[in-house]
Design a protein that fits this description.
By secondary structure, this protein is an alpha+beta fold. The protein is built from eleven helices and six strands.
């Protein structure tokens, strides 16, 4: 709903406090109570978040999340709903349309539950979901891609950028590819989208050439999709996500705003600590 991890954590914390304060005898269904509270808190938070974005410097992209590879059962539905390409399109929906679509089509709540959570009758909720579906369909659906092909294209994209190979990079980009860079005024970024394969390829190679010495680029899973992280001194300084369709990259989303990399860096630290703990256990002195 919110596209920013810290905002989501604030909502969950506030919902928990309200749950703790609510007399248990007044709650007939904990599931319905929590869903309603979280949804309404999200709607309030989304209103203020969108107001803040009106003064945001440059393109605004959702926050990348470092998500470990999901199992086959969860990969198809959840990761498609977390992809930055999908979240970008959700930003174009009204807050109510976004909530209705996510609750019904992603999380499987019925229209009766939507009615209670959104404070609208069931007919209105059906209209909200229908409008959201129509908009998503017009923008290309749920951004699904063959995951093996996506990993392969990510490797080719990285190799072409690292090697400064213009021809190889053009081979993986769609003719109408769009590059979005989000620096938030705190990191170097384009002031608007870079459109078209030729311009995009030259722009991406220029970014690669300007990478500081000592920067390590790793492949990982971002928002449930193949992605790239640029690490400097062990910390992420940018995240790159590719939107892939019809066997080509049709959008490149680069997040360099350090504020939006906090959750990624926290996850990297936790991962390193877990790996170090495992190593100590397997190789005690």
């Amino acid at each position: 709903m919110l596209s920013i991890a810290a905002d989501a954590e604030d909502v969950v914390h506030e919902a928990y406090l309200r749950w703790r304060a609510e007399p248990r005898g007044d709650v007939r269904s904990p599931r319905a109570f929590l869903m309603t509270v979280v949804t309404r808190l999200c709607l309030d938070a989304l209103g203020s978040a969108r107001a803040r974005r009106e003064t945001y410097v440059g393109p605004w992209l959702p926050e990348p999340l470092l998500v470990d590879e999901l199992g086959p059962a969860g990969a198809s539905e959840l990761s498609d709903s977390l992809s930055l390409a999908f979240l970008v399109v959700l930003e174009e929906l009204s807050a109510l349309e976004r909530a209705a679509f996510l609750l019904h089509d992603v999380f499987g709540y019925g229209y009766g539950e939507l009615s209670a959570a959104l404070g609208r009758d069931q007919a209105a909720c059906r209209q909200l979901v229908a409008r959201a579906r129509k908009h998503l369909a017009a923008r290309g659906g749920r951004f699904e891609a063959d995951r093996e092909r996506a990993h392969e294209l990510t490797k080719q994209f990285l190799a072409a950028c690292a090697g400064g190979d213009l021809k190889a990079l053009l081979a993986v980009l769609a003719d109408d590819v769009v590059v979005w860079t989000d620096g938030g005024g705190k990191a170097k970024a384009a002031h608007g989208p870079v459109i078209g394969a030729a311009k995009a390829a030259r722009f991406l190679l220029a970014i690669a050439r300007g990478t500081p010495e000592g920067t390590e680029v790793i492949e990982t899973n971002l928002n449930g999709q193949p992605g790239l992280l640029a690490l400097y001194a062990g910390r992420a300084v940018s995240a790159v996500m590719l939107d892939i369709a019809d066997g080509l990259v049709n959008a490149v989303m680069v997040v360099a705003n350090p504020d939006k990399l906090s959750a990624v860096n926290a996850a990297l630290s936790e991962r390193r600590e877990a790996e170090a703990s495992t190593a100590r256990t397997e190789n005690p002195k």
